Amino acid sequence: MTGFWCESAVVAGDAPADGSPGDDDGGAVDPAAALASVRLDVRDGRITAITPGAKPQPGDHVLKGVVFPAAANAHSHAFHRILRGRTHHGRGDFWVWREQMYRSAAELTPESYEKLASAVFAEMVVAGFSSVAEFHYVHHQPGGAHYAEPHAMELALARAAMAAGIRLTLLDTLYLAGGIDTPLSPEQSRFGDADVQAWLARLASLRAEMERSFPPEMVGLGAALHSVRGVPDKDLAVVAKQLPVDMPLHIHLSEQPAENEACLAAYGVTPAGLLERRGLLSGRLSAVHATHLTPGDVALLGNAGATVVMCPSTEADLADGIGPARALSDAGATIALGTDQHAVIDPWVEMRSLEHGERLGSGQRGRFSPQELLRAATDGAARSMATPIAASVLAVGTVCDLMAVDPGSARTAGSRALQFPFSATASDVTDVVIAAEVVASNGIHRRLGPPGRLLTEALKEFS
Questions:
Q1: 340 classed as catalytic
Q2: Is 431 a catalytic residue?
Q3: What is the dihedral of CA 208, 214, 215, 217, to 10 degrees?
Q4: pLDDT band, very low/low/confident/very high, at 22 (cuts 50, 70, 90)
Q5: Please, what are the domains in the chain?
Q6: I need a labelling partner for 306 at 20 to 30 A (CA). Which of 6, 111, 386, 401 fits?
Q7: Distance of CA 202 to the CA centre of its chain
Protein backbone atom coordinates (compact mmCIF):
# COMPACT_ATOMS: atom_id res chain seq x y z
CA MET A 1 0.00 0.00 0.00
CA THR A 2 1.31 3.44 -0.99
CA GLY A 3 0.03 6.81 0.14
CA PHE A 4 0.10 10.24 -1.49
CA TRP A 5 -0.84 13.38 0.39
CA CYS A 6 -1.83 16.26 -1.88
CA GLU A 7 -1.88 19.87 -0.78
CA SER A 8 -4.83 20.23 -3.17
CA ALA A 9 -6.26 17.80 -5.72
CA VAL A 10 -8.86 17.71 -8.48
CA VAL A 11 -11.31 15.00 -7.49
CA ALA A 12 -14.77 13.91 -8.51
CA GLY A 13 -17.42 16.15 -6.95
CA ASP A 14 -20.41 18.36 -7.61
CA ALA A 15 -18.95 21.77 -6.72
CA PRO A 16 -15.74 23.49 -5.65
CA ALA A 17 -14.85 23.23 -1.98
CA ASP A 18 -15.05 27.01 -1.58
CA GLY A 19 -18.30 27.30 -3.51
CA SER A 20 -16.83 29.93 -5.83
CA PRO A 21 -18.72 30.41 -9.09
CA GLY A 22 -16.88 29.57 -12.28
CA ASP A 23 -14.56 27.03 -10.70
CA ASP A 24 -16.73 24.08 -11.66
CA ASP A 25 -17.11 22.64 -15.11
CA GLY A 26 -20.23 24.49 -16.19
CA GLY A 27 -22.22 21.28 -16.51
CA ALA A 28 -19.70 19.34 -18.61
CA VAL A 29 -18.85 15.69 -18.07
CA ASP A 30 -17.01 14.52 -14.97
CA PRO A 31 -17.98 17.15 -12.37
CA ALA A 32 -14.85 18.07 -10.45
CA ALA A 33 -13.71 20.03 -7.44
CA ALA A 34 -10.28 21.15 -6.28
CA LEU A 35 -10.21 20.06 -2.63
CA ALA A 36 -7.56 20.74 0.00
CA SER A 37 -5.50 18.18 1.95
CA VAL A 38 -6.42 15.11 -0.07
CA ARG A 39 -4.90 11.74 0.77
CA LEU A 40 -4.78 8.96 -1.83
CA ASP A 41 -4.41 5.30 -0.91
CA VAL A 42 -2.84 3.32 -3.73
CA ARG A 43 -2.43 -0.40 -4.30
CA ASP A 44 -0.96 -2.08 -7.38
CA GLY A 45 -0.72 1.27 -9.14
CA ARG A 46 -4.39 2.20 -8.73
CA ILE A 47 -6.18 4.56 -6.38
CA THR A 48 -8.14 2.62 -3.75
CA ALA A 49 -9.36 5.47 -1.52
CA ILE A 50 -9.59 9.27 -1.60
CA THR A 51 -9.86 11.20 1.67
CA PRO A 52 -10.26 14.99 1.55
CA GLY A 53 -9.33 17.03 4.61
CA ALA A 54 -6.79 14.43 5.72
CA LYS A 55 -3.37 14.71 7.30
CA PRO A 56 -0.32 13.05 5.77
CA GLN A 57 0.60 9.67 7.19
CA PRO A 58 4.15 8.46 7.90
CA GLY A 59 5.73 7.34 4.63
CA ASP A 60 3.34 9.29 2.38
CA HIS A 61 4.67 11.01 -0.69
CA VAL A 62 3.82 14.70 -0.25
CA LEU A 63 2.76 16.52 -3.43
CA LYS A 64 2.54 20.30 -3.15
CA GLY A 65 0.43 22.53 -5.33
CA VAL A 66 -2.67 21.33 -7.18
CA VAL A 67 -2.65 17.68 -8.21
CA PHE A 68 -4.34 16.73 -11.49
CA PRO A 69 -4.48 13.43 -13.34
CA ALA A 70 -1.49 13.13 -15.66
CA ALA A 71 -2.08 13.83 -19.34
CA ALA A 72 -2.32 11.38 -22.24
CA ASN A 73 -0.55 12.17 -25.52
CA ALA A 74 -2.73 10.57 -28.19
CA HIS A 75 -0.48 11.27 -31.19
CA SER A 76 3.30 11.38 -31.37
CA HIS A 77 6.05 10.98 -33.96
CA ALA A 78 9.09 10.93 -31.68
CA PHE A 79 11.66 11.52 -34.42
CA HIS A 80 9.94 14.73 -35.53
CA ARG A 81 11.48 16.33 -32.44
CA ILE A 82 14.62 16.65 -34.59
CA LEU A 83 12.86 19.36 -36.58
CA ARG A 84 11.97 21.74 -33.74
CA GLY A 85 13.42 25.17 -34.51
CA ARG A 86 14.94 24.00 -37.82
CA THR A 87 12.15 24.51 -40.37
CA HIS A 88 11.34 28.23 -40.20
CA HIS A 89 13.83 29.75 -42.61
CA GLY A 90 11.32 30.54 -45.35
CA ARG A 91 7.78 30.24 -46.56
CA GLY A 92 6.16 27.00 -47.55
CA ASP A 93 3.46 24.57 -46.54
CA PHE A 94 3.01 21.07 -45.18
CA TRP A 95 4.46 19.49 -48.31
CA VAL A 96 7.68 21.54 -48.11
CA TRP A 97 8.01 20.65 -44.42
CA ARG A 98 7.48 16.97 -45.29
CA GLU A 99 10.63 16.89 -47.44
CA GLN A 100 12.68 18.04 -44.45
CA MET A 101 11.00 15.39 -42.30
CA TYR A 102 11.99 12.67 -44.79
CA ARG A 103 15.64 13.76 -44.55
CA SER A 104 15.51 13.37 -40.79
CA ALA A 105 13.84 9.95 -41.04
CA ALA A 106 16.63 8.75 -43.34
CA GLU A 107 19.22 9.34 -40.60
CA LEU A 108 17.61 7.14 -37.95
CA THR A 109 19.18 3.92 -36.74
CA PRO A 110 17.82 1.69 -33.97
CA GLU A 111 20.56 2.95 -31.64
CA SER A 112 20.12 6.64 -32.39
CA TYR A 113 16.34 6.34 -32.31
CA GLU A 114 16.36 4.71 -28.88
CA LYS A 115 18.56 7.50 -27.55
CA LEU A 116 16.42 10.22 -29.15
CA ALA A 117 13.11 8.66 -28.14
CA SER A 118 14.29 8.24 -24.53
CA ALA A 119 14.98 11.98 -24.44
CA VAL A 120 11.67 12.88 -26.12
CA PHE A 121 9.70 10.65 -23.78
CA ALA A 122 11.56 12.15 -20.80
CA GLU A 123 10.54 15.59 -22.05
CA MET A 124 6.93 14.39 -22.18
CA VAL A 125 7.08 13.00 -18.66
CA VAL A 126 8.41 16.16 -17.03
CA ALA A 127 5.72 18.12 -18.90
CA GLY A 128 3.00 16.01 -17.26
CA PHE A 129 2.31 13.19 -19.73
CA SER A 130 2.09 9.64 -18.37
CA SER A 131 1.11 7.88 -21.61
CA VAL A 132 1.76 8.26 -25.31
CA ALA A 133 0.46 6.76 -28.55
CA GLU A 134 3.46 6.61 -30.87
CA PHE A 135 2.42 6.58 -34.55
CA HIS A 136 5.39 4.64 -35.87
CA TYR A 137 6.27 3.97 -39.49
CA VAL A 138 10.11 3.96 -39.70
CA HIS A 139 10.28 0.16 -39.78
CA HIS A 140 13.23 -0.85 -41.93
CA GLN A 141 16.62 0.27 -43.15
CA PRO A 142 16.94 3.08 -45.71
CA GLY A 143 16.11 1.47 -49.03
CA GLY A 144 13.62 -0.89 -47.41
CA ALA A 145 15.82 -3.84 -46.42
CA HIS A 146 14.83 -5.45 -43.13
CA TYR A 147 17.09 -5.30 -40.11
CA ALA A 148 18.57 -8.59 -38.90
CA GLU A 149 16.29 -8.14 -35.89
CA PRO A 150 13.01 -7.60 -37.77
CA HIS A 151 11.53 -5.44 -35.00
CA ALA A 152 14.68 -3.45 -34.24
CA MET A 153 13.09 -0.01 -34.55
CA GLU A 154 9.94 -0.99 -32.69
CA LEU A 155 11.83 -2.54 -29.79
CA ALA A 156 14.06 0.53 -29.61
CA LEU A 157 10.97 2.67 -29.00
CA ALA A 158 9.63 0.27 -26.40
CA ARG A 159 12.94 0.27 -24.52
CA ALA A 160 12.99 4.07 -24.67
CA ALA A 161 9.52 4.26 -23.13
CA MET A 162 10.50 1.86 -20.37
CA ALA A 163 13.59 3.94 -19.61
CA ALA A 164 11.49 7.09 -19.36
CA GLY A 165 8.74 5.35 -17.38
CA ILE A 166 5.98 6.46 -19.76
CA ARG A 167 3.13 4.15 -20.80
CA LEU A 168 3.52 3.42 -24.52
CA THR A 169 0.97 2.39 -27.11
CA LEU A 170 3.11 1.61 -30.15
CA LEU A 171 0.99 2.10 -33.25
CA ASP A 172 2.64 -0.01 -35.93
CA THR A 173 1.75 1.67 -39.19
CA LEU A 174 0.74 0.30 -42.56
CA TYR A 175 2.32 2.46 -45.28
CA LEU A 176 2.19 0.99 -48.79
CA ALA A 177 1.86 3.90 -51.23
CA GLY A 178 3.31 7.35 -51.77
CA GLY A 179 -0.09 8.63 -52.87
CA ILE A 180 -3.21 7.27 -54.48
CA ASP A 181 -2.06 5.06 -57.39
CA THR A 182 1.53 6.12 -56.66
CA PRO A 183 4.32 3.82 -55.43
CA LEU A 184 6.45 4.64 -52.42
CA SER A 185 9.23 7.09 -53.21
CA PRO A 186 12.85 6.24 -52.35
CA GLU A 187 12.51 8.48 -49.26
CA GLN A 188 9.50 6.44 -48.13
CA SER A 189 10.92 2.98 -48.84
CA ARG A 190 11.89 2.23 -45.23
CA PHE A 191 8.31 2.89 -44.15
CA GLY A 192 6.73 0.17 -46.27
CA ASP A 193 6.00 -3.56 -46.24
CA ALA A 194 5.75 -5.88 -49.21
CA ASP A 195 1.95 -5.87 -49.00
CA VAL A 196 -0.86 -5.78 -46.46
CA GLN A 197 -0.45 -9.47 -45.59
CA ALA A 198 3.25 -8.96 -44.86
CA TRP A 199 2.31 -6.11 -42.53
CA LEU A 200 -0.32 -8.21 -40.75
CA ALA A 201 2.20 -11.02 -40.27
CA ARG A 202 4.82 -8.59 -38.97
CA LEU A 203 2.22 -7.06 -36.64
CA ALA A 204 1.37 -10.47 -35.18
CA SER A 205 5.04 -11.28 -34.68
CA LEU A 206 5.65 -7.91 -33.04
CA ARG A 207 2.70 -8.40 -30.72
CA ALA A 208 4.07 -11.72 -29.52
CA GLU A 209 7.49 -10.17 -28.95
CA MET A 210 6.03 -7.22 -27.03
CA GLU A 211 3.98 -9.51 -24.80
CA ARG A 212 7.07 -11.58 -24.01
CA SER A 213 9.35 -8.65 -23.31
CA PHE A 214 7.40 -5.84 -21.64
CA PRO A 215 4.76 -5.43 -18.91
CA PRO A 216 1.35 -4.93 -20.53
CA GLU A 217 0.42 -2.03 -18.26
CA MET A 218 3.44 -0.11 -19.62
CA VAL A 219 3.81 -1.21 -23.26
CA GLY A 220 0.98 -2.17 -25.57
CA LEU A 221 0.52 -2.52 -29.32
CA GLY A 222 -1.97 -0.86 -31.62
CA ALA A 223 -2.25 -0.43 -35.37
CA ALA A 224 -2.31 2.55 -37.69
CA LEU A 225 -3.04 3.24 -41.32
CA HIS A 226 -0.86 6.08 -42.47
CA SER A 227 -3.66 7.72 -44.49
CA VAL A 228 -5.90 7.00 -47.46
CA ARG A 229 -2.95 8.29 -49.50
CA GLY A 230 -0.65 5.69 -47.95
CA VAL A 231 -2.98 2.66 -47.97
CA PRO A 232 -4.79 1.64 -51.18
CA ASP A 233 -8.53 1.11 -51.07
CA LYS A 234 -8.29 -2.65 -51.64
CA ASP A 235 -6.01 -2.96 -48.61
CA LEU A 236 -8.35 -0.97 -46.39
CA ALA A 237 -10.92 -3.72 -46.97
CA VAL A 238 -8.39 -6.38 -45.90
CA VAL A 239 -7.54 -4.50 -42.72
CA ALA A 240 -11.21 -4.16 -41.87
CA LYS A 241 -11.63 -7.94 -42.07
CA GLN A 242 -8.35 -9.20 -40.62
CA LEU A 243 -7.03 -6.73 -38.02
CA PRO A 244 -7.48 -8.16 -34.51
CA VAL A 245 -10.62 -6.64 -33.03
CA ASP A 246 -8.96 -5.75 -29.71
CA MET A 247 -6.36 -3.45 -31.27
CA PRO A 248 -6.77 0.34 -31.32
CA LEU A 249 -6.67 1.68 -34.88
CA HIS A 250 -5.45 5.15 -35.87
CA ILE A 251 -5.25 7.04 -39.17
CA HIS A 252 -4.20 10.49 -40.36
CA LEU A 253 -7.44 11.81 -41.82
CA SER A 254 -8.11 14.85 -44.02
CA GLU A 255 -5.08 16.75 -42.77
CA GLN A 256 -4.68 18.47 -46.14
CA PRO A 257 -7.19 19.61 -48.79
CA ALA A 258 -5.06 17.88 -51.44
CA GLU A 259 -5.73 14.54 -49.75
CA ASN A 260 -9.48 15.11 -49.93
CA GLU A 261 -9.30 16.17 -53.57
CA ALA A 262 -7.28 13.11 -54.57
CA CYS A 263 -9.61 10.78 -52.67
CA LEU A 264 -12.70 12.29 -54.26
CA ALA A 265 -11.15 12.02 -57.71
CA ALA A 266 -10.12 8.38 -57.25
CA TYR A 267 -12.99 6.96 -55.20
CA GLY A 268 -15.86 9.44 -55.43
CA VAL A 269 -15.96 9.97 -51.65
CA THR A 270 -14.03 11.84 -49.00
CA PRO A 271 -11.47 10.01 -46.83
CA ALA A 272 -14.06 9.64 -44.05
CA GLY A 273 -16.53 8.34 -46.59
CA LEU A 274 -14.00 5.81 -47.83
CA LEU A 275 -13.40 4.53 -44.29
CA GLU A 276 -17.15 4.23 -43.79
CA ARG A 277 -17.48 2.34 -47.07
CA ARG A 278 -14.84 -0.17 -45.93
CA GLY A 279 -16.31 -0.68 -42.45
CA LEU A 280 -13.47 1.06 -40.63
CA LEU A 281 -15.47 3.78 -38.88
CA SER A 282 -16.19 2.63 -35.34
CA GLY A 283 -15.59 3.42 -31.70
CA ARG A 284 -12.10 1.92 -31.82
CA LEU A 285 -10.94 4.31 -34.59
CA SER A 286 -8.88 7.39 -33.77
CA ALA A 287 -8.85 9.87 -36.65
CA VAL A 288 -5.88 12.21 -36.33
CA HIS A 289 -6.16 15.88 -37.34
CA ALA A 290 -9.52 15.67 -39.20
CA THR A 291 -8.92 19.28 -40.16
CA HIS A 292 -10.71 19.58 -43.51
CA LEU A 293 -14.06 17.85 -43.09
CA THR A 294 -17.42 18.27 -44.77
CA PRO A 295 -20.58 18.38 -42.62
CA GLY A 296 -21.21 14.84 -43.83
CA ASP A 297 -17.78 13.75 -42.60
CA VAL A 298 -18.49 15.25 -39.19
CA ALA A 299 -21.74 13.30 -38.99
CA LEU A 300 -20.03 10.04 -40.03
CA LEU A 301 -17.31 10.34 -37.37
CA GLY A 302 -19.81 11.40 -34.73
CA ASN A 303 -22.31 8.66 -35.49
CA ALA A 304 -19.51 6.07 -35.33
CA GLY A 305 -18.43 7.33 -31.91
CA ALA A 306 -14.88 7.70 -33.19
CA THR A 307 -12.11 9.50 -31.34
CA VAL A 308 -10.68 12.53 -33.10
CA VAL A 309 -7.14 13.45 -32.08
CA MET A 310 -6.47 17.14 -32.48
CA CYS A 311 -2.86 18.40 -32.38
CA PRO A 312 -3.34 22.18 -32.21
CA SER A 313 0.29 23.25 -31.86
CA THR A 314 1.34 21.13 -34.84
CA GLU A 315 -1.65 22.12 -36.94
CA ALA A 316 -0.71 25.76 -36.31
CA ASP A 317 3.00 25.20 -36.92
CA LEU A 318 2.36 23.47 -40.26
CA ALA A 319 -0.38 25.92 -41.32
CA ASP A 320 -2.77 22.98 -41.64
CA GLY A 321 -5.87 24.89 -40.54
CA ILE A 322 -8.38 24.76 -37.69
CA GLY A 323 -10.39 21.56 -37.41
CA PRO A 324 -14.11 21.49 -36.45
CA ALA A 325 -13.56 20.22 -32.91
CA ARG A 326 -16.75 21.60 -31.38
CA ALA A 327 -18.89 20.31 -34.21
CA LEU A 328 -17.28 16.87 -33.94
CA SER A 329 -17.85 16.72 -30.20
CA ASP A 330 -21.46 17.81 -30.60
CA ALA A 331 -21.95 15.12 -33.25
CA GLY A 332 -20.80 12.37 -30.86
CA ALA A 333 -17.06 12.06 -31.46
CA THR A 334 -14.62 12.02 -28.53
CA ILE A 335 -11.91 14.69 -28.66
CA ALA A 336 -8.36 13.79 -27.62
CA LEU A 337 -5.11 15.75 -27.84
CA GLY A 338 -1.65 14.97 -29.15
CA THR A 339 1.66 16.72 -29.75
CA ASP A 340 2.41 15.12 -33.16
CA GLN A 341 5.66 16.73 -34.41
CA HIS A 342 6.57 18.19 -30.99
CA ALA A 343 6.89 21.83 -31.94
CA VAL A 344 5.69 22.07 -28.33
CA ILE A 345 5.46 19.32 -25.70
CA ASP A 346 3.02 20.78 -23.21
CA PRO A 347 -0.46 19.40 -22.40
CA TRP A 348 -1.64 22.77 -21.07
CA VAL A 349 -0.70 24.57 -24.27
CA GLU A 350 -2.54 21.96 -26.34
CA MET A 351 -5.64 22.35 -24.16
CA ARG A 352 -5.96 26.09 -24.55
CA SER A 353 -4.85 26.01 -28.19
CA LEU A 354 -7.82 23.76 -28.92
CA GLU A 355 -10.15 26.35 -27.40
CA HIS A 356 -8.30 29.29 -28.95
CA GLY A 357 -8.68 27.79 -32.41
CA GLU A 358 -12.41 27.48 -31.82
CA ARG A 359 -12.60 31.09 -30.62
CA LEU A 360 -10.67 32.40 -33.62
CA GLY A 361 -12.85 30.45 -36.01
CA SER A 362 -16.20 31.26 -34.41
CA GLY A 363 -15.79 34.64 -32.77
CA GLN A 364 -17.15 33.15 -29.53
CA ARG A 365 -15.56 32.33 -26.18
CA GLY A 366 -16.24 29.26 -24.08
CA ARG A 367 -16.52 26.78 -26.92
CA PHE A 368 -14.99 24.12 -24.64
CA SER A 369 -15.25 24.38 -20.88
CA PRO A 370 -12.08 23.96 -18.81
CA GLN A 371 -13.28 20.53 -17.70
CA GLU A 372 -13.90 19.45 -21.29
CA LEU A 373 -10.33 20.49 -22.09
CA LEU A 374 -9.02 18.47 -19.16
CA ARG A 375 -11.00 15.49 -20.44
CA ALA A 376 -9.52 15.88 -23.93
CA ALA A 377 -6.04 15.85 -22.38
CA THR A 378 -6.70 12.71 -20.32
CA ASP A 379 -9.39 10.08 -20.75
CA GLY A 380 -10.48 11.46 -24.12
CA ALA A 381 -7.68 9.26 -25.41
CA ALA A 382 -8.88 6.09 -23.65
CA ARG A 383 -9.90 4.25 -26.80
CA SER A 384 -6.73 5.46 -28.54
CA MET A 385 -4.51 3.55 -26.14
CA ALA A 386 -3.59 -0.07 -25.42
CA THR A 387 -2.30 0.83 -21.94
CA PRO A 388 -4.33 2.35 -19.06
CA ILE A 389 -4.56 6.13 -18.74
CA ALA A 390 -5.74 8.49 -16.05
CA ALA A 391 -9.29 9.81 -15.88
CA SER A 392 -9.93 13.56 -16.07
CA VAL A 393 -10.54 13.66 -12.30
CA LEU A 394 -9.06 11.56 -9.52
CA ALA A 395 -11.39 8.74 -8.61
CA VAL A 396 -11.24 5.37 -6.87
CA GLY A 397 -10.21 2.66 -9.32
CA THR A 398 -8.26 4.88 -11.69
CA VAL A 399 -4.54 4.48 -12.30
CA CYS A 400 -2.29 6.55 -10.06
CA ASP A 401 -0.85 8.79 -12.78
CA LEU A 402 -0.62 12.33 -11.43
CA MET A 403 0.88 15.73 -12.09
CA ALA A 404 1.25 18.45 -9.47
CA VAL A 405 1.09 22.06 -10.64
CA ASP A 406 2.40 25.16 -8.87
CA PRO A 407 -0.54 27.52 -8.18
CA GLY A 408 1.75 30.44 -7.38
CA SER A 409 3.88 30.82 -10.50
CA ALA A 410 3.90 34.00 -12.56
CA ARG A 411 1.45 32.25 -14.90
CA THR A 412 -0.94 30.57 -12.46
CA ALA A 413 -1.04 33.03 -9.55
CA GLY A 414 -4.65 34.04 -8.99
CA SER A 415 -6.10 31.38 -11.29
CA ARG A 416 -8.84 29.10 -10.06
CA ALA A 417 -7.52 25.58 -10.08
CA LEU A 418 -10.03 24.21 -12.57
CA GLN A 419 -9.22 27.04 -14.96
CA PHE A 420 -5.53 26.13 -15.17
CA PRO A 421 -6.04 25.04 -18.80
CA PHE A 422 -6.05 28.78 -19.53
CA SER A 423 -3.03 29.75 -17.46
CA ALA A 424 -0.65 26.88 -16.67
CA THR A 425 2.23 25.57 -18.76
CA ALA A 426 4.51 22.57 -18.49
CA SER A 427 6.98 24.83 -16.67
CA ASP A 428 4.53 24.89 -13.74
CA VAL A 429 4.49 21.09 -13.36
CA THR A 430 6.41 20.28 -10.18
CA ASP A 431 5.97 16.51 -9.83
CA VAL A 432 4.84 13.69 -12.09
CA VAL A 433 3.72 10.29 -10.81
CA ILE A 434 3.29 7.27 -13.09
CA ALA A 435 2.01 3.94 -11.78
CA ALA A 436 2.41 5.30 -8.23
CA GLU A 437 6.09 6.17 -8.76
CA VAL A 438 7.38 9.75 -8.61
CA VAL A 439 9.17 9.86 -11.97
CA ALA A 440 9.93 13.58 -12.35
CA SER A 441 10.30 16.60 -10.09
CA ASN A 442 10.85 20.27 -10.93
CA GLY A 443 11.62 19.63 -14.58
CA ILE A 444 14.14 16.85 -13.91
CA HIS A 445 13.51 13.22 -14.80
CA ARG A 446 14.51 11.25 -11.72
CA ARG A 447 15.99 8.35 -13.66
CA LEU A 448 17.43 10.06 -16.71
CA GLY A 449 18.20 13.63 -15.64
CA PRO A 450 17.34 16.95 -17.32
CA PRO A 451 15.57 16.45 -20.66
CA GLY A 452 17.46 19.38 -22.16
CA ARG A 453 20.76 17.62 -21.60
CA LEU A 454 19.37 14.34 -22.96
CA LEU A 455 18.00 16.04 -26.08
CA THR A 456 21.18 18.00 -26.68
CA GLU A 457 23.22 14.79 -26.67
CA ALA A 458 20.73 12.84 -28.76
CA LEU A 459 20.36 15.54 -31.40
CA LYS A 460 24.11 15.69 -32.02
CA GLU A 461 23.67 12.58 -34.14
CA PHE A 462 21.39 14.32 -36.64
CA SER A 463 22.22 16.97 -39.19
A1: yes
A2: no
A3: -80
A4: very low
A5: 2-70+392-445 (2.30.40.10), 72-384 (3.20.20.140)
A6: 401
A7: 24
Segment 39-64 shows an average pLDDT of 97
β-bridge partners, 285? 249
Average pLDDT over residues 412-436: 98
Q: Who's near 29: CB < 8 A, 6+ residues apart?
A: 371, 372, 375, 392
- In this prediction, residues 201-212 reach a mean pLDDT of 98
433: buried, middle or exposed (CB in 10 Å: 19+, 13-18, 0-12)? buried
449: which strand partners? 445
Q: How many CB atoms lie within 10 A of CB 19?
A: 9
Among candidates 118, 139, 121, which has minimal Cα distance to 129? Answer: 121
| Distance from C-alpha of 44 to C-alpha of 402, rounded to nearest angstrom | 15
| pTM > 0.70 | yes
Given 250, 289, 342, 445, which residue is catalytic?
289
Residue 430 has pLDDT above 60, yes or no: yes
The active-site residue out of 23, 25, 297, 340 is 340
Q: From CA 132, how far away is CA 357, in angstroms rounded?
A: 23
Model confidence at 17: pLDDT above 50: no
Q: Minimal CA–CA distance to 351: which of 68, 81, 135?
A: 68
**How far apart are the C-alpha atoms of 327 and 295, rounded to whole Å?**
9
pLDDT tens column, 356-365: 999 999 999 9
* Residue 2: pLDDT over 80: yes
The residues, ordered by sequence, that sit 6+ positions from 167 with a Cβ below 8 Å of its Cβ are 130, 131, 132, 161, 217, 218, 219, 220, 385, 387, 388, 389, 401, 434, 435
